Please model this.
Amino acid sequence: MNIRLDLQYDGTNYHGWQIQPRDITVQSVLMRAVAEVTSRRANIIGCGRTDAKVHALHYVCNFDIDTTVPIERMPHALNAHLPDDIVIRSASIVPDDFRANQSAVKKTYLYRILNTEMPDAFLRNYAWHFKYPLDFEKMRAGAKAFLGEHDFIGFAAAGFTVKTTVRTIYSLDLRKNGNMIEMEICGNGFLYNMVRIIAGTLAYMGNGRIDYRDADAVVASRDRNRAGITAPPQGLFLKEVFY
Amino acid sequence: MNIRLDLQYDGTNYHGWQIQPRDITVQSVLMRAVAEVTSRRANIIGCGRTDAKVHALHYVCNFDIDTTVPIERMPHALNAHLPDDIVIRSASIVPDDFRANQSAVKKTYLYRILNTEMPDAFLRNYAWHFKYPLDFEKMRAGAKAFLGEHDFIGFAAAGFTVKTTVRTIYSLDLRKNGNMIEMEICGNGFLYNMVRIIAGTLAYMGNGRIDYRDADAVVASRDRNRAGITAPPQGLFLKEVFY
Model:
C-alpha cells in the first residue's frame, strides 16, 4: 500500500532532507525509523529537497510498503523511533499513483528576517539576523515584481538540472511584527535556492543596495548578478504543500 | 570598576548557569569570554542559579574588573567571543556595592506548557509537552492559593540551604494562546525548583489529579507529597530581575 506521511522537522541538526552518503539527513533518519517499525526497507519519496538547516512546518512524503501496522498507529509508532526534532503528524493510505514530489501542484514557503542591531539567542536557528536598516515599504513595493509567470533563471543557484526555469508565483506577502519581517511566497514550483535568493533580493531592496524601482528590470534580466545574495538557510521554512 | 551585564541565553546546551568542574555552563563560557576580551580573570556574580536546559530571556550578572575596554564596546566585544546561544544585550558601570544576586528585590519567571496530543518539533526545547487534558479555569482558580507570603518548603527540591523557606509571591498570571498555556510568576525569591513544582502542581490541578479546590490546603500543608511533580526544565524561562 501507498502511505502518505505529513510531518514537521526542525532542520537545524540535519544536512537537509535528501539522503547523503555520510551526513545525517531527515530522509535517512526517517528511513531507519520506518525500517524499525515495519521491518521493511522503504523507498521514501519526499515532496522536495530542503537544504541543510532549512525547516519544514509541514512536509509530505510517501512510500510503498507491505505492513500489518495499522495506519492509525503509524504516527505514534514512528515518533517513538524518531528524534524529537522530527514529528510525524499524520499518516494515511493514498492512491497508488500519489507521488509526494510529482503530485504537488503548489508550495508555500515562509522566510523570516530579524531586523535588529543585536542578535537573539532564541532565534539564531529560526531567522536571518539582518542588522542593517530595512525599509519595509520598499520591500513590499519590490515584491510585486515577482508575481506571475517568469523565467527565474536569475534567481537560481548553479548546479541544477530542470527542464525549464519558468515558474509561476501566485502570491508573495510581506508582514512585519515588531522587528520580525516575514515573507510568505506561494508558487507552482521553486528552483534551487530560489526562495532564499528572492529573500536576499528583497532585503537588498529594503536596505537600498538594490533600487526597489528596478525590481521589474531585475526580474526580467534573468541575471543572477543583478539579484541579491542568497539569504541564509535558517530563516527558511517549508510551510505547506498542496495536492 | 563594577560592570553589570544584561544578557539572554538559550539554556538547551548548558548545564545551567553555575560553574561546574566538568560540564559546560553559561558562567564558565562567559568567564572565558571576559578573559579573552579583557585579559583579566573575573569573578562573575550571577543573579541566581538556573538548572540545566532552563532559559533566560533576561539575566543579570556583575563583576569587578580593571579594563581599558570602553563600556559601550563591551557587548559587541563579548558577543564576538561567545557562542550564539548567549547574547550580551547591554553593559553598564554600576556602583561598587551592586551585587547581581543580593541586590535583586524580585524576579519574574515564565513557564510554558504545550497542551497537545502530538509533540511539536520546534517547541521541544522551549515548552513542557503535556498531552493529557488540562482545564484552564481550574488551573487559574488553583493559582490564587500561591499569592502572598507562605512557607514554600513543600514546593522545594531537597538539598537546598537557605535561612528561611518563606517567600512572597506578588503575582501569578495564567494565559492561554491556542494550545499553549503560559504561567508568569513574580516573587521576592524562589526556592530550588519552586517555579517548576508550582507549574507541575497547577498542571495536576488542571488535569484533576489534584483537586483545585484543595489548593489552599496543599500550599498550607508544607508537604512536598501533596504538591504535583517537578515540571521539566525546558519550559522555564527567567524573564526579568528587578533591582
Notes: Chain B has five helices and ten strands. Helices of chain B lie at 26-38, 74-79, 136-143, 194-207, 215-221.
